[in-house]
Amino acid sequence: MIGRASPTAAQPTRLSSESEVSMVTILPGDPVYSMFGHSALRVHDPALGVDRLYNYGTFDFSDPLFIPKFAYGHLRYFLSVAPYDAALRAYEQQRRPVIEQRLNLTREQRTALFRFLRVNAQPENRYYQYVFFFDNCSTRVRDALKEALGDAVQFADRPDPQRSFRHLLDPYAASLPLVDLSFDLALGTPADRRPTPREAHFLPEYLFEAFNHATVETPDTTRALVARTDTVQWIEGYNATPEAFDWPLAAGALFLVLVLGWTGWQATTGRRPGPYGDALLLAAVGLTGLLACFLWFVATYEVTEHNWNLLWAWPTHLIAAAVLLWRPSAPGLRSYLGVTAVGAAVVAIGWTWWPQQPDTRNPILPSSPVSAYRNAG
Prior knowledge:
alpha+beta
């Protein structure tokens, strides 16, 4: 939950009639952590000398436990405050356009939101448990308005997403095919549900559109929440979703061709060059399954639960790879490989009927028949 002001907290100065409050949308950048864009709130009051950007998307890279916390799902984000001009320069250096939506709030509403943000930026209130789809820098901006202004702000059921959580991510990963692959491997069936319009606010682009369709009540009337939209910074030649060569898919297809050729060569010549290639394939698939198990059963990410990739990516393949290398004639090994071949074949044949629907260009498609073919060989 967002921290609330306590009765004993010192209240900040009332904003002047010249003040303005805006939602600032920063378009996606090149680093992975910025691939979805960003949302923040600006409070500007020239009479008080205030011009601040309130940012719920801050995390601490210097934390020595950053990677374990991120893997386990216990990484805390926090609300930071920066001078607006300094933040704008930083986004310019990152070559990220910035769009500002001026909010149609009364002076009292602007002051209430400013006070709320001031209290939430205090050290005892600033941290929160980041949840990718449901509690992030974008949803916190919406929730700040609702907490500070109550039912005066109303969000319509627009825009209505027509795709699942998983497929909403695809356009943002178009230039990062390895990241796109990681989404399809790591996310479970919770990501295949179509979000409600409110749930889609986890993406800044959708929150931007939601603000355009929202209303705010004042003592006199109900009016549009957004009074004006300005592109305050544009980057020449910027492309929000550049396409990149899908090398994981190309590598998967090439791997399929090589394995089929290798297996055909073995069948026609009767020669077996050794277990190393099969052991490597088993180990790679086993590591994938081990990661899926960790994300489902150990980490606290709900969206990585119920991962159907475990139908073909068995963690026990790691043990089978070791046995294949050191005891290839071990009892039960051939039976194990036969069972896994059937499982991988079922996955490959029934792909389109999965409740979990990754991108059809995903290299998992060729990897399943490869696994089935080699295990049966």
